Amino acid sequence: MNEVITLVGGTTTVNDIGDEVEVEAKVDVFARVKSVGASYKLQAMAVGIRPKYRFVLQDRYDYNGQEKVEYEGKTFRVVDTYRGEDQSIELTVAEV
Fold it and tell me: Which InterPro entries does the record match to this protein (predicted)?
């Protein structure tokens, strides 16, 4: 089942007086939500990371290195990515 997630990343722009300003950019994309496997979860927890979800985006070009994901009113940080053999990309996220 596809869900809508929001990818959150920062971009730098120049304001009216010439100062560089960081602006938060959000993009909504469709993703399939999967659970994190027990083996992966245990390995991540051993180094202090608590992975929560895996999001599979059908088109890897939907993802441009964003560091955060918003889903169901919560913010998560991207801790790992995996590029599939097809055009998909998988994002593993942990709660912020």
Answer: Phage_SPP1_head-tail_adaptor, SSP1_head-tail_sf
∠ at Cα 77 (76, 82), nearest 5°? Answer: 115
pTM equals 0.84
The residue written with tokens 């070009």 in the block is 61
Domains of the chain with CATH codes: 2-95 (2.40.10.270)
| Burial class of residue 30 in the structure, from the number of CB atoms within 10 Å of its CB (0-12 exposed, 13-18 middle, 19+ buried) | middle
Question: Any idea what DSSP says for residue 16?
Answer: T
